[in-house]
Automatic annotation (TrEMBL):
Function description: May be involved in fusion of ER-derived transport vesicles with the Golgi complex.
InterPro entries: Got1, Vesicle_transpt_Got1/SFT2
Protein name listed in UniProt: GOT1B protein
Subcellular location: Golgi apparatus membrane
Membrane topology, from the record: Multi-pass membrane protein
One Pfam short name: Got1
Keywords, ordered alphabetically: Golgi apparatus, Membrane, Transmembrane, Transmembrane helix
Transmembrane segments: 5-22, 28-48, 60-77
BP GO terms, sorted: endoplasmic reticulum to Golgi vesicle-mediated transport; retrograde transport, endosome to Golgi
């Protein structure tokens, strides 16, 4: 429960920090809360194993490097690196997430619109499960 709360607050602070024109303090707090919450949810050892698998080292480098750059004080560059690293790290989960969202009544309808459907199909066809 604590981990989900920390992760949720982390995502909230990251989102709010981006809305407020990449506010350094909010993004730094969001990054720390997100990583701490993830560690609480799945455990320290599993978090370490997830981030430091051999085939995920590039993605981990971008993600954690982005966190470090945000903490240093360059939020725009740091967030770009973080987002790229996040997509590389979690691309195996995208087909599952898209399949779930397609079953939600309103969101599923939006994802099945002609222009959006082909884009979502392209993102959701990743075969790399974590």
């Amino acid at each position: 429960e604590i981990g989900m709360g920390l992760t949720g607050f982390g995502v909230f602070f990251l989102f709010f920090g981006m809305i407020l024109f990449f506010d350094k303090a909010l993004l730094a707090i969001g990054n720390v809360l997100f990583v701490a919450g993830l560690s609480f949810v799945i455990g320290l050892e599993r978090t370490f194993r997830f981030f430091f698998q051999k085939h995920k080292m590039k993605a981990t480098g971008f993600f954690l490097g982005g966190v470090l750059i945000v903490l240093i004080g360059w939020p725009l560059i740091g967030m770009i690196l973080e987002i790229y690293g996040f997509f590389l790290l979690f691309r195996g989960f995208f087909p599952v997430v898209i399949g779930f969202i397609r079953r939600v009544p309103v969101l599923g309808y939006l994802l099945n619109l002609p222009g959006i459907s082909s884009l979502v199909d392209k993102v959701g066809e990743s075969n790399n499960m974590v």
